[in-house]
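Put briefly, the fold is written as integer tokens. One such record reads:
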Amino acid sequence: MKNKALITGVFRKDKSDKKGYIIANLDTGLIEKIVFDEIPPENFTGEIINYEENYTICSGDFNCHSHPEQSIYTDIIDKSWDLGTWCRNTIYKYSVKLQPEHVYLGCLRAFSRMLTLGVTSVMVSFYCHGNKKNLLDREVIRAAEDVGIRLYFGRMNYDIINEDAYEGKKASQKTYYETPEEAEINFMMLSGEACSNNVVVAPSLHSIHASTKEAIIKGINLAFEYGKYIQFHLSEDKGDVDLSLKLYGLRPIEFLESLLKKNEIKSLGHVILSDCVWIDDNERDIIKKYNMKVVLNPRMNNRIKTGEADLRKLLDKDIPLYLGTDGEASNDDLSITGERNFLKNRYTDINSDTIDSIGTTPLAFNNGFIGNIDVNNFCDLKVLNKDGNIKDVFVGGKKVVEDGNLITMDMQKDIEAPLKKSLNKLFIF
């Protein structure tokens, strides 16, 4: 049992607190055993970690939608900006200048902050390839591995350039641009490099306005072929709906269903839709019919004034829901607890346990699952003190945060200091 850990204490499971213990395999990162109301075995020879009853052990949070490289913009944004202004002054201004060090250090900042906030897994949507194939993509993965977070890396295909756009936007889009064929090749190369239990590489799409019909078909089918989830922004703002109606004569989710009915795509059950702010009742019915999943980014949508997804109607349809933060520069922070608290304050008529359950439906990840505490799920945990603040965090049974502080890296020395130096050159303060 030398490569195993035994963790005892009060576990929050199925909306109740139960005293017990779990045994985690540190090689696979999976929970092998969970027992309540029994004394732990006396002959256990692996690592033993005991928590007193004034601590609560919970499943680590899953951030289902994130652009971690955008943490580099946190010091230059104005919280009053709408979506268009935000894009103009951040990604469309600086993404053409991004170098590997900016991506790596920016992601280190984002991932380290997530961990100290109790986020143990994150699904990233990355499209800033910079005409460099997988060079910048590798930096995102390297950052996740170095800091110790579990990463579902969505390699986005962005294959539309708006020739009528202003110069900064057009220049940025040219650095994102890949043909669907190039995106497939680069995905397969990157996927072949990923060999960690903590990393999944998957195809991803940007949006109706940044992905052609060809890219959408190829991306959805490619993800299905490789047994991956595929995520893309959908109906984040009204412009996406208007564009879909113009291009296809259908609303965005109706358009996806039409591809399935025409046998142009093989499935919709592996599709995760980000935002879904501007969807109607029929589209919600379609989401439910084909078992698609929705990730909500409520604080980001509120900050950049794109609207608000109808949580009540999504819950009424029993649609699998997850929570995301988007990038740190378009949010208050990278906390999923923060997203839940925002929803609780916004929807006071919805039971708080219902909101707390959002994002806890297990999601397949390599040879296990994330989302809650159970056998064959990854041992990703956050330990809360009596005030509800983070004490410790575990990823795969290994401690990465202790007493609220990251222990895999020195946040100031290894991340903040070199990042500040690097950004002084990028932003030319």
